Amino acid sequence: MLSAIIISPDEQFRDATRELLEGSDQIEVRAELNNFYSSLDSWIFNEIKTMEADVIIVDVVPDKEQGILTVEKILEISKHSHIFVAGNGTDADVILRSMRAGAKEFLSTPLESQPLFAAIERVSKVHTVATKEKKRFGKLFTFFSAKGGTGSTVVSTNFAVSLVEQTKKPTILVDLDMQLGEVSLFLGMKPAFNIVDVADNIHRMDEALLKGFIKKHASGLDVLAAPDSLEKVESVGPSQIVQILQFLKNSYEYVVVDTSNTFDDHTVSALDQSSTIFLISNTDLPSLRNAQRCLSIFERMGYKKEKIRLLINRYQKSLEIRTKDIEETLNFPVNWFFPNDWPTIMNAVNSGVPLSTVNHSEIAGSFASFVQQVAGIQPPKQPEKKKKGLLGLFGK
Questions:
Q1: What is the mean pLDDT of residues 297-324?
Q2: Domains 2-133 and 139-375 belong to one CATH topology
Q3: Secondary structure E strands in 239-307
Q4: What pTM did the predictor assign?
Q5: Domain definitions of the chain by residue range
Q6: 3-class secondary structure, 295
Q7: Going by C-beta distance under 8 Å and a sequence separation of 6 or more, which residues neighbour residue 346?
Q8: Cα-Cα-Cα-Cα dihedral of 102, 107, 111, 112, to 10°?
């Protein structure tokens, strides 16, 4: 069944339209708004996106200019919706401007049953085809540090590079540490554009435009960089981050997000949309204490336990602390341990070269195995060693 929203300052129009729609089993009225778009109450229209209505009927008769502006604003935040404009059928100007604004149908007022349901039937056919052909949402992996300095950017960048190298599937790494993001530095890249540019153009974003804003790494990984100055951060709101991440999930098989270690609006937007949240901690007491706090916050935010995976970075087997100790302290299972190899990490960071290129190192192997676990990849089979006969013991 399709869903609809009715927008009109005219109560009689809303009532009459609702009565028409209630006579059909094809569509249900999800909401009614009695005002056109206004910058003072724009938050109301942002709620339209969360409703995901298939049809939005806008009555432009009370105010042609505001009505058409409303159509434009709705399409900025909800490209999924089909806009029906209701207006004076003899006014060629309003018909033309409505279509230019993005309306799918123009219906003469007063609305009549036959043309209204003919338009709904056309939407229904498109909706059915789109549902069958709809691309499966990609997976979004968010990396969050329990404490500053635990290595979130090292883990997320090397995970993303190894992920694209092993799966060969479209993957993008998003630097959502809006103030101090270092993803580009860690990968030895100097992007010309960043996430602010995408946010400024999200209302008209398509895959061709997106390609102009992302930077391609030698591994095949796409990178969307953090802002290059603090002044730009304030211009990006959490609703824009939501739109960006939803667009990326429609465009990529995997979206990897590196965040700051604070629960700011941008980070929470990513956490909410994540398929999996990777919480990174070290084994020192302050890190583990913060990890415990984070797990408690995740629970209060309504995240299921299965959505969270705990990663321990810079782990040293020689230390007295054991896996059992960590899990009992946090009352949460450890998903993965990354070994402590500070010299190799620092050499990779300073040279801007991912660890996967240092394939002989233990930590590079750990990342490869971790990616195989997350992506469900079977590890490559090792060639079987041939058994030596008696003569083989002595060589040739």
A1: 87
A2: yes
A3: 254-258, 276-281
A4: 0.64
A5: 2-133, 139-375
A6: helix
A7: none
A8: -130
Q: Which CATH class is domain 2-133?
A: alpha beta
Show the tokens assigned to 136: 């499966």
DSSP state of 383: P
223 and 217 Cβ atoms separated by less than 8 Å: yes
258-297, pLDDT tens digit by residue? Answer: 998 889 889 999 999 899 999 999 988 899 999 999 999 9
DSSP secondary structure letters along 76-141? HH-TTSEEEEEE-TT-HHHHHHHHHHT-SEEEESSP-HHHHHHHHHHHHHHHHHHHHHPPPPPEEE
Chain centroid, CA 43 distance in Å: 21
| Domain 139-375 top-level CATH class | alpha beta
The 3-state DSSP class for residue 202 equals helix
CA 161 to chain centre: 18
Rounded CA-CA distance 51/30 in Å is: 8
Half-sphere exposure of 44 (CA within 13 A, CB side): 14
CB 82 within 8 A of CB 54: yes
Strands 276-281 and 222-224, by their bridges, are unpaired
Higher pLDDT, 47 or 202: 202
Instruction: Please say whether the beta carbons of 315 and 366 come within 8 A.
Output: no
Q: Indicate the residue type of 111.
A: L
